[in-house]
Fold:
Amino acid sequence: MIYYISIILIGIGVYGLLSQKNLFKHLISLALIDTAINLFIVSTGYINGKEAPIYSEFTPIANFVDPLPQALVLTAIVIGVGVLALGAAMLIKIKEKYGTLNVEEIRRGDK
Amino acid sequence: MISLMIAIPLLFAFVSIVFKGLAKYALPFIVLLNILILLIASTPVVENIGGWKAPFGISLVLDDASYYVVLVVNLIFLLLSLIPQIIDKGYDTIILLLLTSTNGLVLTGDLFNSFVFIEITAAAAYILAYHRNNPYGAFKYLIIGGISGSFYLLGTIFSYVGAGSLNMAHISNNSFGQLTAAIAILFILGLGVEAKLFPLAGWVPDVYASGSSLTPTILGTAITFAIMYLTGRIFITVLHGTFLDVLYILGLLTVIVGEVAALRQDKLLRALAYSSIAQAGLVVAAISLNNIDSLTGAYFHSMNDLTAKFILFPIATVVIKGFEKDRLAGFAFSVASFSLIGFPLFAGFRSKLLIISSAFSAGNYILPAVLFFASIVEAAYLLKWNIKLWFEKSDTSNNIPWNLKTIVLVLSILLLIIGIYPDLYLDASRKIAQSILDTQGYINSVLGGI
Amino acid sequence: MSQLLLILFIGSFLVYLLTRMNWIIGVLANIGLAIYSFYRLFTFKVGTSESIFSLIVNQNGTLVYSELSKFFGIISLIVAISVYFFLINWLEKQKNRAVFNFFLALITASTLGVFFSGDLLTLYIFWEIMLLFSVLLVQMGKEDSKKAALNYLTISLIGSYMYLYAVFMLWNRYGTLVIKDIVQKISVETSIFKWAVLILIAAAGIAKSGIFPLHTWLRTTQGSSPDAFSAILAGQLEKLGAYMLVLTVAVFPSLKMFPVLYGGIPVFNYVLIVLGMISILIGTLMAIKQNDMKMLIAYSTVSNSGYILIGLATMDKIGFAGGLFHAFNHAIASVMIFLSFAAVIYRTKTSKIDEMGGLIWKMPLTFITYLVGIISLAGIPPMSGFISKWMIFVVLVKKGMFLTAAAAFIGSVGSFLYVFRPLAGVFLGQLKSKHKDVKEVPIFMLIPMLVLVVITVFFGVIPGPVLNMITAVEKELNIQPLEHTMTVIKSSVGQWNTLTVFTMFAVGFIIAFILYMVFPKAKRIPLTNQYTAGEFLYNYDLYHYSTRFYAFFERLYEKHPSVEKLYEMFGKFFKDIGEFLNRWFYSASPSAYLLWFSIVLLAIFWVRW
Structure:
């Protein structure tokens, strides 16, 4: 089920990147794709009916979902956030340089 | 011990945020320290971070291949650190970060770890791309780089799902079953953007030709070489050469497209950026032939290419007006371009010869033809630029700093020496090729015979 | 031989240093090197071979000294020495003398290297060194030469990379690159392989000697390169092309490799002959049109290379000898012509025919050089150029190849037309007022020109020594040797006695001279009176007829198709594609990047899954 959600999200992200002219929307689409992939990763480690991978008194038997994808996703999220922040910073600079975030106007400005 | 090569630059990168200006002085020493570590290390070294055994923890692997690649990368950074003029204020932190991530990228034996390092490299590269106020180019790079990073991550996860491990050696030892194709495609898309393959990497010219001499000099040399290593490592050592034919086609396409696109450029830097694309395509195509000679030729050619590009890019950004005032720089520029074209006596000839002969022995008649076509086009535009720069009258004197001039001159003489006595590069690249092809040896040395 | 080559390569660096100190010493050093190697050519024993550095695993480079290398080595050194002598005065006006001299020395060294090469890869290496430095020399000329150099480089590289491709095909098949070994094995191959290899190898020779599809670089390159270097280009470098053609048709045994068409000519050679035929026609027709005298002779080179190729490709004892002899004659004649042009340009600073005239009175010795040069080039007896053309004609007639013979004949007639144009426009006619005080060129420029005149006349009368070398080459290549004595060439159609012909011409000349002396002298009038019938002249410079000299003839083929334009179209096509890629792919928006990204993704999925 979650597979489908992540695939739909990737689709929305790709559609956004392909159809939008605004660079900020491109960045948002990138974020969507990132999120979708993170979701997908978490879903790969999920096993139906298992519990969160935390050792405690209540779970003496390690009846866990796979914890590794979750750990990976944490790292991936951090990296994604970094890249998004960088992208936002670039957008500010683009706005300063060209006065617009519209792709076509920037292209015209470049010539 | 080898983890220090990643840790120390990273530490200094953080420190240099607080103590501004420190990085500039620290960079040469850090790189020298790295090289020192390399010199006392004897391959193969496998270092398990945190004491976790190989398939479970992250391990750093210093075998023959990564040894020489790291050595080359660090030597490039050393050369770069000797020309502090081109590193603007604030960018030294980025250079340190880049050094960290590139070393990590090459040394790591863990797929997810390599994803992290690729993303750090890419992030540093986005910032470098912004150098000289080029935000749009950098943003475009960021978008396509971010997407490719996601695909690389997906590839990593698929390998985990398929082979049950993230350790490259372990993955290589296990089999994926049905997922092989998916993994290979995802890695092609993930690496292709960084490896400058044609339909994937449109960002290159806008980033390389921003007018900064720092950006192309470092991205087109050290990073490209590391990515080429990673391509070989993943597709040959880990994936046992599946889907190399796709890489081969993309590589050939890149060669043709890169050279043809370079032909019309009226900006030298842009032409050189396209030449960089084409050379990368050639290296990828040669890697994809997957035999010892072609791999040797590929890495040999990559080394020649980066030597030449380390000459061409800085000169191209500094000298806009011509060589009349500066004949030595002009000499270096010409030698580098002749080497790129592949005239006999110059280094590029030896590597191209090796690639061609290996292609012929593999029964491949298309790669040489494409290579020859590319060389003709390349000769046409590089010579055009040489003539233009040598004969253009200039009133303003270009100030090429003496240290840059010395480095460039030494490198050009190196190209000439390699053209006559290639063993210096050839041995290194042969070791890289052998060790990349030696899957079993890699598995044994990492997993210790599990 | 490796020792000689080493001396030459190291010597060229010395030449560079010496020229930097004092350019005359540099030129003298260069001459010294050339003369030394000329001497060494005669000391080597034919058939010796040496192995040098190795480039591919298990492949040693080899040098072999054969009659063929001796013959071509002698040609190229004669050319080199005479041009170097010329430089003693000429170089004064050239910029970057040290580099100029250095490159010349390197070119001579690598040219000899090509002739000595015993294996295909060594040959390629020397070939490329020669190419690189000749390109660098070409662009030292006039303003157009920058573009011409690119043109030259591109077309030559097309040729040499095709050659290299063939080299690797052979290497892949036999595991060896030594010419001698390959030649023994190749005749039993499949015919596709043989065709592919030989066409690819011939391409290098075709590009270098300016045969039809790859001749376009000659006009601009020879026209705009430094004047003295044009002579080297025509006399030394294009003969490398001839050498390569000999390699293709004779060293590779085309007679054994291909089925024989009528006249005993292999099919492959027939293709080459057709190409040679087209080049003769194109070269002649285009040469007639040129107004720049260097470009004119450049086109004549195209047509003469056609003769050489036809002669060689017949693989007949007379035809082959004729081809080789024509290579020799053309080298000498074109050097004479280009040197005399260089001398004219040295004094008048222009190469446009319609900007000159009447220089015969000012530069008589240069005129004589040019005259003898064109007589030899156009193939008029008693000069040596006639003999070689006659030999080629004889074989064409004997084999019944009348179409080719017709083309060769048209080319011969056409060559009278085009060599007359500079003669009339530059040397004869009315002297321009701005050239009133032009002097004859200095002595060191005259010496090589006159020596070459003597050589041409001498071999026109006594062709024996050259023919001896040629028969030695023929024996070496398993062709029946030409029957000849010092002055008589025998063929099945008849024989040609050069001495008799020369005596006849000499007697005729003497009779004419006596008549000229005996009859009363014509009254000398000012030249302009001829045009004006003694009227007063308002505008002095207008009356010399040299612009659109052959307008009546050019009109016949004004709208001819041009390969040059076709190549320009190709170049533009590639550039347009490049521009397209640049605009729509590389500097596109992130959306476009992603679009391509997804296309690749889908394509791979579709194809591979």
Notes: The longest strand of chain C covers residues 49-56. Chain C has a mean pLDDT of 82. Chain C has two domains: 2-506, 566-608. Chain C touches chain A at residues 587, 589-591, 594-595, 598 (CB under 8 Å).
